[in-house]
Design goal:
The protein is an alpha+beta fold and 260 residues long. It has a single domain (15-259), classed as Alpha-Beta Complex (DNA primase, PRIM domain). The protein contains ten helices and twelve strands. It has helices at 15-24, 28-34, 75-85, 125-130, 139-156, 179-182, 186-198, 205-209, 234-237, 251-259, and strands spanning 44-47, 66-69, 89-93, 95-97, 103-106, 108-112, 163-167, 172-176, 214-216, 221-222, 227-228, 230-232. A four-stranded antiparallel beta sheet has the order 2-1-3-9, covered by helices on one side. A four-stranded antiparallel beta sheet has the order 6-8-7-12.
Amino acid sequence: MKEYYLPKGMRYATIRERRQFYRQEFKLENIREWFKEATGRIAFAVIIGRHTGIYLEKYKEDASTTIIIDEYDSLQDVKNYILEFLPESVYYDRNVYDENNRIVSQELAFDLDPENVTCPIHGSLADKMQRGQGLGFCELELQMVKDYTVSLHEYLRKRFSLMTVVYSGRGYHIHVFDKEAYGMNRKARKQLAKEVKTRGFPIDEWVTAGEMRLIRLPYSLHGLVSRIAVPVEFEKLRTFDPVKDAGCVPQFLKRQEAIS
C-alpha cells in the first residue's frame, strides 16, 4: 500500500469505515438538492482503490479502473452500487446529454489541488513525483490552494454569478452554473483555462477545458484523506479549515478522536 504524507488527522479510510459512512452519513437528499436544476440523465463513476490500495478482494482486478454507473432507476440504486463497490472515490459526469446520448453542453468547473502549487517545503509536483509523493500534501499546501481558490472565485465573479465552491478532500472545486457557462464550446473553455492559468491561478486545465468530464461528487467520502467533499459558502471559505472543520470530518473519525 502506498503511503502519502498528509496533514495531521487525515488518513486512508478502511473498507469498514467506507461502508459505515455510506450506510449512515451519505444522504440522498443532499445529492437530490445538488442536482435539482440538472437536465437529462446523470452518470456517476467510482474508483475502488487506485491510490489507497484498499479494496474488497473480489474487486482486485478492477481496483484501479474507473467504473461508470449510468444504468440505474433511482439514486437509491446508485447508493446501492456504491455500497457494493465501497470505493475510495465517487464522481459524476459534468456532460449534459440529449435523448440520443449526444453531448449538448457541459457544466464548467475549476479544479485546484495541492499538486498545482509549489510548496516551499516539499517543492513542485515534479519534486514530489521523484520521491513517489505525487498525491502527498501538507497543511501549508492546503492553505495555499484555498487562498488561490478565494482569489479565483473573486476573479470569476466578473463573468459568472452562479458559482459554488466545494472542498473536494485534497483541494477545492469551483462549479459554475450560469447558463452562459453551460453553452461554452470546447474552444472557449480552453481559452478560459489558458486565461486563468496565465493570470497565475494553479488550476487543472483539463477539467476547465472539458477534457476531464468527471468531478468528485459532493457529499461523498474522499477515501485517501477521510474527509467528506462538502460545499462551502464563499463567505466562510477564508476561515474554513478542512483539517478540523466538523462539517467535513466523518463520524468514524470523530468517534475515534473521542475515544483517544
